[in-house]
Each structure stands twice: as structure tokens, then as C-alpha cells.
Design brief:
Length: 149
């Protein structure tokens, strides 16, 4: 049986989709390296590069991940300015990739709580005139006075 589907080239936008697939394949093959680079950018601190007195550390004392986090170095005379990559945007990308910023599926739905209520149990006993007379009960306030005496 032969495949009778038309070639993909006839549909609009196929080249763009194929380019995206190619890029995603490249990213997929190197996703560990991309993740490590983002983590390096997100965890680097200025104190990895500079001393607390404002002087720059020796090159061999600066960790590799901190060197990769440097965006720009400007030197004017004796002044050295070091600009690092935006940490907030890097952390946002990491949070999105890890799913930390995804909304909960059931977050907007109201909670349903089942409440089972039990009332007091009432034991009813059938009373007829013969049992009332055997027990000595009658209907009337005069009997209550007679029992108190």
C-alpha cells in the first residue's frame, strides 16, 4: 500500500515549521548544556568576581560559572565596571522550564467539601392506656402533687 498523502511543501508555512523543528532538535540534543549554562548564570554572584573592598579578584580565583555570567567589562583609567547578566530573567526562564510558574489545574475551581450531619437519635416507644396504668402514670397535674406528699 502506498502513502497517498500530498508532499508537505505544498502547504504554507512548512519551511518555518521545519526550521523550528530543526532548532528544537538542536536544543533537545544539548538540553543538559543549556540547563547547566542557565544555572551557572542564575547562581553567580558579584562576590565571586569582586572583593568586598571593590577590587577585582585575580583571574585564577574567579570560578568558571561566574566568568560566564559576566555580560560586559568597562575599564576607564583605574575604574573597572563589571556588568552581569540579568539574574531575574534567567531565574524566570529556569522557573518556567521546571514548571514552577505553571498554574495549578484545579486552582480556580472551588473546593467541594462533603459534610455528613447526624442528628440525635430519638427512641419512640408506643404507649397505650394499659401500660400507663401499670406504671401508675396519668395525665394531669393533680397526680404530680399527690406523689410529692
Amino acid at each position: 500500500m502506498s502513502d497517498k498523502r500530498p508532499p508537505l511543501g505544498r502547504f504554507g508555512g512548512v519551511r518555518m515549521v521545519q526550521r523550528r523543528i530543526g532548532r528544537s532538535e538542536t536544543l533537545h540534543q544539548n538540553k543538559e548544556a543549556v540547563a547547566q549554562e542557565l544555572i551557572a548564570l542564575g547562581t553567580a554572584n558579584i562576590t565571586d568576581i569582586m572583593n568586598l573592598d571593590g577590587t577585582v579578584k585575580e583571574y585564577d580565583q574567579i570560578p568558571e560559572h561566574a566568568l560566564r555570567a559576566i555580560k560586559k567589562i568597562s575599564v576607564r583609567g583605574d575604574d573597572v565596571m563589571i556588568e552581569m547578566h540579568d539574574k531575574v530573567s534567567v531565574l524566570r526562564v529556569l522557573a518556567k522550564a521546571s514548571g514552577m510558574l505553571d498554574a495549578e489545574q484545579n486552582e480556580d475551581k472551588p473546593s467541594i467539601v462533603g459534610i455528613n450531619m447526624k442528628g440525635p437519635t430519638i427512641n419512640m416507644e408506643e404507649v397505650n392506656e394499659s401500660t400507663v396504668q401499670e406504671r401508675g402514670h396519668t395525665d394531669g397535674p393533680s397526680d404530680a402533687k399527690g406523689q410529692d406528699e
